[in-house]
Amino acid sequence: MVGKIYRNFKGSFYIVLMLATDTVTNGQVVVYQNMITKQSYTRPQSEFNDLKKLSDGKLVKRFTCISDRNESKIIGRCEECTAVIRSEDEIERSGVYECFACGQRSVKETMQA
Asked: Where are the domains of the chain?
C-alpha cells in the first residue's frame, strides 16, 4: 500500500505516504497526499479500503490503486502540475509522456528533473 498511487471515487489522485497508528483509537490510519495540491490527509485504513455509497445508491471503491511506484522509474516532473512522472521502458522509447494526474503531455527533453 505504501508508495502506491490511488484514484479516489471523485477522480483525484493520491499517493500513500505511510501507515500510522491513531493515538486515540490505536487503529491503523493511512497517511496520503494529493498529487496536485500536495495536501496530506489521514483516514482509518478500514475506511480507506471500504466502499462508498453514492447519492444514486451505487457502491464504489473509495480508493482504487492505479499504479505501483516500484513497477516503474522516475523520469521527471510534469511541467504543468509538478507530479512525478514514472514510465515503463516501452513508453520511454517514444519520448512523449502523459501525466496521469493532469493529462499534460510532455516531451522528455522539456521535462523538469
From this structure: 4-67, 72-110
